Amino acid sequence: MVEELRVKARELLKNKQVELVIGYQRASDGVSATPCFIENEKDTDLLIWDAYCVYNLSSYLKDHPGRKIGIVAKDCDLRSVVVLLQENQLKRENLFILEMECQGVIDERRLQFSDKQNQEISFAQKCKSCQSSKLSISDYVIKDRGEKRKTPDDYDEYGPIRKMEVKATSERLKFWQEEFFRCIRCYACRQICPMCYCPKCVAEQAQPFWFSKAINLEGNFSWNVTRAMHLAGRCIDCGECERACPVGIPLRDINKKIEKDVKELFSYEAGSSTEAKSLFACFNKNDPEGFIK
Amino acid sequence: MLKIITKEDLHKILISLLSGFEIIGPRELSHKGIFYEPITDMKSLYWGEGFATEPVKKFFLSPSEYLFKGRYDNGKEVLDDLPLTRNKRIIIGVRPCEAIGLTLLDKVFNADEYKDEFYLNNRERTILVGLSCLKPDKSCFCTSLGGSPESNRGLDVLIFLGGNEFIIEIITETAKEILKNSGRDLSQAETKAWELDRKRRKESLNYRIEVPESLDKIFESEYWEDVSRSCISCGVCTFLCPTCHCFDLVDEKRKKLRCYDGCAFCDFTLEASGVNPRLAKKERYRQRVFHKFDYFKKNFKENLCVGCGRCIRFCPVKINIAEVVDKAPLVKS
Q: Which of A235, A262, B52, B69 could connect to B34 by a Cys-Cys bridge, CB 3.0–4.6 Å?
């Protein structure tokens, strides 16, 4: 797979189809991966592909406006490209999508804290419910010839959410207060998120202040809830926020809850179709109105 | 002064000290990491070889702290100081690199020109009990910056774990006073064994980098563009750094708030006029490296980095500052 990727990237740069290829290279620790930005066809051998390629590289697309870019993307990353196209943040003609058929990526945090480190690969939670590619927006697909990793049929991706939903409000509040208490407001969740592209985030506005800058429960709660609400109908569950969080807040659970609500209320799944409009840009007279009181 | 003490006895001493001190120590939260927290049940103390996510810096330079408040008194503006917390604390399990980090912060907040009363108050009311490292992490590089897994700089006590018996090196008079009747002295053979163990710990870290004396010549280099491309401009590296100390002053609810800020954020240098002198990632990342390995050294004769490896371990995109610094001199400007 990796050789095919390198050959294709070299060809794209050589033919000037793209000016830049955003992909993965080996990190300095010799094991994990790190994003790489290749402009010269000579450097394409840096590209790698394996289960350590965890990053959703589409969050880098906004850094290079107007340039023709080749991007290495997994299936989940494709969904974020779809949303970015929907929201007019990208021009399709400026993009060459190199899709990698993915067998799941590693959860490095769980790997770090697990006792049986070398015995089994610890796949990221998001990969357990991955319904591999339904989208056909890629320009070039690099197939995995290996045996397909099976996702269990009975795996309920909303399992943890259902467990949480039945708890009393006070219990849920307590849970999230304890989680948000540890938040250090580094905004890694925002910065890594492909959907967080606002030139000025609400958290940075000083006149007026929308919520406290103080790193305490009040400010932390406001920040995390605001971030979650701004992703309603837009989050494609790449899980990057949770991965980036240095203090281990289960941010994906919040996103999944909203994803579940959006699905149930509006039968809408973010990034699942190239034709669909974004959730808040479409109106249907049958939309539920239970919240208007 | 050296003493041998059992784990149980150390826990007993800590429990007896709870009446006069707040005790803070590392605790492991499953799947989340290790965090310094106030401890009342000594059994929950973490004695493993892992490193806390946040350094002890936060107990001295608070992530957010209200400095003073304003009010109107018969139409006149009055500013009131907010009361300082005076209770005594013991922080246990501090890694040598974090303690060295505090001695570097002292140079800034306890300087002749300026003494920060909040920081100094926190320093004065705290006893630091260190824990020597046995298994440095793959991101650790303290020995390249004058530190060591067994350094006692900035500490009151340094603990060497070994089975159920700990060897404690008692460094300051305050600590001697508290521990004068605890544990037993070491025999000659035990002292010899400890010296060997100490040497072994010192040599346990093989990864070394070359830190250049000055980075002046490569300020304009394209190198900074290359190494900062994957940076996502978040605050992980600065907030988790034991030595980064930049802050923002904010007015909230008639109070003046001082909270962490970091040079990686885009709005860190945004001026009221709308001009931002560090608009590009390369300028911001370069600033971080230069502050640590150039500017601070020019002012205080030391690097503003202790090689704890946190910014490498927790960087969401695995930028490695040790590697960036190590490779920097090789780049021709």
A: B52
Alpha-carbon gap, residue B97 to B101, rounded angstroms? 6
A82 in Cβ contact with A54 (< 8 Å): no
Cα distances from A165 to residues A161, A226, A260, B68, B149, in angstroms, run 6, 20, 11, 42, 47
DSSP string over A259-277 = HHHHHHHH---TTS-SSSP
Q: Is the pTM of this model over 0.90?
A: yes
Tell me how far apart the alpha carbons of residues B146 and B96 are, in angstroms, rounded to a whole number: 11
Q: Within an 8 Å CB–CB cutoff, is residue A205 touching chain B?
A: no
Alpha carbon B222 to its chain's center: 31
Q: What is the pLDDT of residue B331?
A: 52
> Helix A217-230 vs helix A251-266: angle between axes, to the nearest 10 degrees?
40
DSSP single-letter state for residue B245: -
Positions of chain A with pLDDT under 70: 111-121, 132-133, 149-151, 293
| Residue in this structure with the two tokens 């305490």, named with its chain if needed | A216
Flag if A186 and B239 touch (Cβ within 8 Å): yes
Q: Which segments in chain B show pLDDT lower than 70?
A: 329-333
3-class SS of residue B243? coil
Report the 10 Å Cβ neighbour count for B250.
Answer: 18
Cα B275 to Cα A56: distance, rounded to the nearest angstrom: 31
- For B152-210, strand residue ranges (E) read 157-160, 165-170
Question: Is residue B58 exposed (0-12), middle (13-18) or buried (19+ Cβ within 10 Å)?
Answer: middle
Nearest to A191 among B35, B64, B234 (CB): B234
Q: Which residue of A has its CA nearest to B54?
A: A247
Q: Which residues of A touch B265 (CB under 8 A)?
A: 187
Give the chain A residue nearest B226 (alpha carbons).
Answer: A37
Helix, strand, coil tally for chain B in percent (to 5): 35, 20, 45
User: How far B80 CA lies from chain A's nearest CA (Å)?
Assistant: 19
Q: Is A201's Cβ below 8 Å from some Cβ in B?
A: no
How many angstroms separate the Cα of A155 from the Cα of each of A102, A160, A221, A240, B304? 19, 11, 31, 21, 49
AA identity, residue A1: M
Least Cα distance to B311 among B51, B129, B28 occurs for B51
pLDDT tens-digit map of B92-126: 999 999 999 999 999 999 999 999 999 999 999 99
What is the dihedral angle through the alpha carbons of B322, B327, B328, B333, rounded to the nearest 10 degrees?
A: -160
pLDDT of residue A211: 85
- In angstroms, what separates the C-alpha of B261 from chain A's closest C-alpha? 9
Supply the pLDDT for residue A104.
86
Tokens 């907040």 correspond to B109
Interchain contact A37–B (C-beta under 8 A) = yes
* CA–CA separation, A184 and A203 (whole Å): 14
Of A34, A206, A246, Cβ closest to residue B240:
A246
Chain B hits for A58, Cβ within 8 Å: none
Token pair of A95 as six digits:
């993009």
Q: Which residues of B touch A59 (CB under 8 A)?
A: 232
What residues have CB less than 8 Å from B209, skipping those under 6 apart? B141, B144, B322, B323, B325, B326
